[in-house]
Amino acid sequence: MSEPFLIGENMTGGYGKGPDILHDCTIAVNPGEIAVIVGPNGAGKSTAMKAVFGMLTVRSGSVRLAGEDITQLSPQDRVVKGMGFVPQTSNIFASMTVEENLEMGAFIRTDDFSETLEQVYHLFPILKDKRNQAAGELSGGQRQQVAVGRALMTKPKVLMLDEPTAGVSPIVMDELFDRIIEVARTGLPILMVEQNAKQALEIADKGYVLVQGRNAYTGTGQDLLADPGVRKSFLGG
Ligand SMILES: Nc1ncnc2c1ncn2[C@@H]1O[C@H](COP(=O)(O)OP(=O)(O)OP(=O)(O)O)[C@@H](O)[C@H]1O
Ligand SMILES: [Mg+2]
User: Fold this and answer.
1) For the whole model, what pTM was predicted?
2) For the segment 74-87, what is each residue's pLDDT rounded down to a tens digit?
3) Strand, helix or coil at 214?
4) Tens digit of pLDDT for each residue in 2-28?
5) Displacement of CA 189 from its chain's centroid (Å)
6) Residue 185 phi/psi, 5° resolution?
7) CATH superfamily, domain at 6-82+157-234
8) Looking at per-residue confidence, does 107 or 74 come out higher?
9) Do the beta carbons of residue 211 and residue 180 sit within 8 Å?
10) Do residues 224 and 231 touch, judged by C-beta distance below 8 A?
11) CB 113 within 8 Å of CB 106
12) Average per-residue pLDDT for the chain
């Protein structure tokens, strides 16, 4: 098997001097793919994303991007290398306007980012309408669009989303998934954590079920949806 575009491989580690949360955990994604991480609350999904992004030290294992070992890089340096990350919480600046949030996303760029801004507004038209409004005044689904848009402003080579549809209605969830599929079709690999396991696996090229910091099941989205063990334990039968 060839080297994935982004891989956190056999990651073991936890927070500070605390116990290990991840145990030999592997997650990866390739260009054009949507890879989805599901699992119960507290399984370590966000921790695995943070480990890939460099927000906690892995005691063993490695993170590689386009074949390069980036295990020792800071999150900032990983952004420069092309990682866009939308964390589960505090992912926008509530008191700043929508457009200021998006501009903040382009902080590492020295080139003209106006074209990317237009692309984000094309993807999420509501953000253009509300560009001068404080982001904190937006609905949950609109805020998530700001957060995803902000990550896209760096022109990342890979996009990592931790629960992009958290707290939104089923209709808004479907819309967000459609936008995420649209972004993936441009070739940008997407690695995302989702609470809505069934719907997320339906759009996933690759799925990971994490349980207690370990890989419990790995396969294509369709494989996992059809797996009796996954269905029984995680999809409600
Ligand atoms: N900053 C932190 N410091 C110490 N422990 C943490 C920290 N963040 C999370 N943990 C612990 O790590 C474990 C995994 O948490 P994590 O947030 O990765 O789970 P999750 O799968 O993302 O859950 P959820 O579905 O609720 O978002 C939990 O036991 C949690 O208490
Ligand atoms: Mg989480």
Assistant:
1) 0.95
2) 999 999 999 999 99
3) strand
4) 799 999 999 999 999 999 999 999 999
5) 10
6) -65, -20
7) P-loop containing nucleotide triphosphate hydrolases (3.40.50.300)
8) 74
9) no
10) no
11) yes
12) 95
Ligand 1 pocket residue status of 47, Cβ below 6 Å: yes
**Domain extents in the chain:** 6-82+157-234, 92-150
Helices (H) and strands (E) in the chain, counts: 10, 10
236 sits in the region (left: phi over 0; alpha: psi -120 to 50; else beta) called: left
Whether pLDDT at 223 is above 80: yes
CB 26 within 8 A of CB 11: yes
Q: What angle do CA 181, 55, 168 make, to 5 degrees?
A: 40
pLDDT reading at 49 higher than 60: yes
- The whole-number pLDDT of residue 107 equals 87
Ligand 1 centroid from CA 96, angstroms: 28
Q: Is the distance from the beta carbon of residue 110 to the nearest atom of ligand 1 less than 6 Å? A: no
Query: Which one-letter amino acid corresponds to residue 126?
Result: I
Q: Tell me if 43 CB under 6 Å of ligand 1.
A: yes
Q: Which ligand is nearest to the CA of 162?
A: 2
Residue 31 is encoded by which pair of tokens?
Answer: 């260009």
pLDDT at 187 over 80: yes
